[in-house]
Amino acid sequence: MPDNATYEGLAHVVVAGGTPQEWLSMSTEQWAIRISTLLEGASIEGVQWITLLPHHGNALSGPDRELLRKDLRQVDTVLVGHGERYVTRNDAGTVVIVDPSPDGHARFAATVEALRVSGVDPDTIDEESLSLAILAPAVAEPDLVIILGPPDLIPESMVWELAYSELVFLDLGWDDLTASDLELAIDDFTRRHRRFGGLDS
């Protein structure tokens, strides 16, 4: 992507906050509120994809993942190369992807291994195909990553997602996020000159 590109829209937002254990402790009602908060906060720019990742923590066991899926309610389970993602969409077509995997390195490695096992010719794997596999079912690179927590602590749950994204840190706890906070982060993003991973000269 060109270094001199400017903001022209917002397709994909990633939010990193909390731990899988904190997510598991949330009730069905709390999850419904959290998903509504994400959708409301992102609606001002017509975001198409919202991916929710934990900031850090320990991976959930199979039974705990099933409990989380039930708490999320009314979600589809999408099998991707690196595991399961839970997906829901609103009437406007915005898709929320919930991925409880706290280890971005493991997710990256599992995606590459899944491509290998599926018989994909290694010579045909390029940045675009790898991106589609890692971000699935989203089909766009994250434009914006919103990180809940101290600004000096990069989430362990992300590797690929940080490459070309703009980062906004919100010094908030997982339980404190509001739609207004998301709106402010997105507003900050819209006023930036995007570098797509490059540095200002």
Write structural notes for this entry.
The chain has 201 residues and is α/β, with parallel strands linked by helices. Strands 3-4-5-2-1-6-7 form a 7-stranded mixed β-sheet, with helices on both faces. The longest helix is centred in the first third of the chain and has 15 residues, at 28-42. The protein has helices at residues 20-24, 28-42, 62-72, 104-117, 127-135, 179-190, and strands at residues 12-16, 49-53, 76-80, 83-89, 95-98, 144-148, 166-170. It contains 6 helices and 7 strands.
Total beta-strand segments: 7
Beta strand %: 15-25%
Structural class: alpha/beta
- Biggest sheet overview: 7 strands, mixed
Q: Order the strands across the largest sheet as they lie in space.
A: 3-4-5-2-1-6-7
> What's the shape?
globular
Gap from first CA to last CA? 16 Å
Give me the number of helical elements.
Answer: 6
Mean pLDDT: 88
Residue share in helices? 25-40%
**What is the CA-based Rg, rounded?**
16 Å
Q: Uncertain runs with pLDDT below 50, 5 residues or more?
A: 1-7, 196-201
Which keywords apply here?
single chain; 201 residues; alpha/beta; seven-stranded mixed sheet; 6 helices; globular; disordered N terminus; disordered C terminus
Quick recap:
This protein has 201 residues and is α/β, with parallel strands linked by helices.
Set out the fold topology.
Elements (H helix, E strand, L loop, with lengths): L11 E5 L3 H5 L3 H15 L6 E5 L8 H11 L3 E5 L2 E7 L5 E4 L5 H14 L9 H9 L8 E5 L17 E5 L8 H12 L11
Parallel strand pairs: 1-2, 1-6, 2-5, 6-7
Antiparallel strand pairs: 3-4, 4-5
